[in-house]
Amino acid sequence: xxxxxxxxxxxxxxxxxxxxxxxxxxxxxxxxxxxxxxxxxxxxxxxxxxxxxxxxxxxxxxxxxxxxxxxxxxxxxxxxxxxxxxxxxxxxxxxxxxxxxxxxxxxxxxxxxxxxxxxxxxxxxxxxxxxxxxxxxxxxxxxxxxxxxxxxxxxxxxxxxxxxxxxxxxxxxxxxxxxxxxxxxxxxxxxxxxxxxxxxxxxxxxxxxxxxxxxxxxxxxxxxxxxxxxxxxxxxxxxxxxxxxxxxxxxxxxxxxxxxxxxxxxxxxxxxxxxxxxxxxxxxxxxxxxxxxxxxxxxxxxxxxxxxxxxxxxxxxxxxxxxxxxxxxxxxxxxxxxxxxxxxxxxxxxxxxxxxxxxxxxxxxxxxxxxxxxxxxxxxxxxxxxxxxxxxxxxxxxxxxxxxxxxxxxxxxxxxxxxxxxxxxxxxxxxxxxxxxxxxxxxxxxxxxxxxxxxxxx
Length: 458
What we know:
Number of strands: 6
Largest sheet: 4 strands, mixed
CATH superfamily of the largest domain: 2-methylcitrate dehydratase PrpD
Distance between the termini: 55 Å
Low-confidence stretches: 451-458
Strand order of the largest sheet: 4-3-5-6
Order of helices and strands: HHHEEHHHHHHHHHHEHHHHEEEHHHH
Strand content: 5-15%
CATH topology of the largest domain: 2-methylcitrate dehydratase PrpD
Structural class: alpha+beta
CATH class of the largest domain: Mainly Alpha
Shape: globular
């Protein structure tokens, strides 16, 4: 009998170790951890995180994994769940094109919780991250576009599969047990874009982590599943795809070409809102800096993006901060009014300002014809004095061609630590993560000494 896709993926995962990944991959994985921690700490005091923490405390009790930024520990699944919500609630965490989603927040809360419980270090987490990224990215490359267009939230609906492979790798599962874990993951892969702009979006990312841990830990104990759960007649590809040949994910898998993390890379967010707004923000903020225009000077703004580029932007007239994160109209209004878009931009009161609400109907978005890639934002600003400003943005800050430097990433981390009111020394934590020396994950999290505000969190 020929090997199933899940068994082939399991064999690939077995071959990914700290010794077989490259220094570039290891550094990229550590940058992803730093960025994910930054976003989670920045979101620590948000309402959905506090609600999840109350739920987790009631259902878990003391455990072996940290809630990031707090001293207490929970069971590993509950800790990963809370940290997953914190890491995604600001929508500030990294993305990657092949997935059409957020790879790091779908994996790293689970990997860190598991590494703490198992006494493992950053090197092991980095290798597991590489394995998980490869699988979720390859699945995304094959089915992602139509899958996302149907309404799936790929961070969860595809990310759960990659996160499960990552956790299986970290546990050292063999190919057969990894295949069992993947089958269990298929049973839990879900997530809807209808939830964008609500607490449920971050829940879906958190669920990917909790589900992945459960799948890998059950497989370790001998719990089995259908090994053809990906390609079978009633399997994942048939249910979640649109007739694509999912077996193509094996093309070159484990070969000599650079792995997907290096080829596709991560896109680290400069603004804490949906990535579909970022090209527009880059161009508009540059125009404002160059000309000094303000919202009072502008009659209308028209933005054209590539086909399907604006699918996540569900809220044309947002009323809350969460809805504002998925609104091109709010992004434009806030940029012209404030000259910046940062963490304070997404308080409900900021979205509800009369000047913002009055301007948003003056922003028109439309999608062009053709394919999603190459992506672009074509911005036309019509001034009240009759003049017109124009800017087209294809490459954006934080993307593969203009990545944030390590120093810029550390600054983002420090901003999020300060936003959370934590007493941690951001530079020390960042150095411990980015330095190539291996360290226990628990020792790194020890550096996130909670400040007075974090201790008082309810």
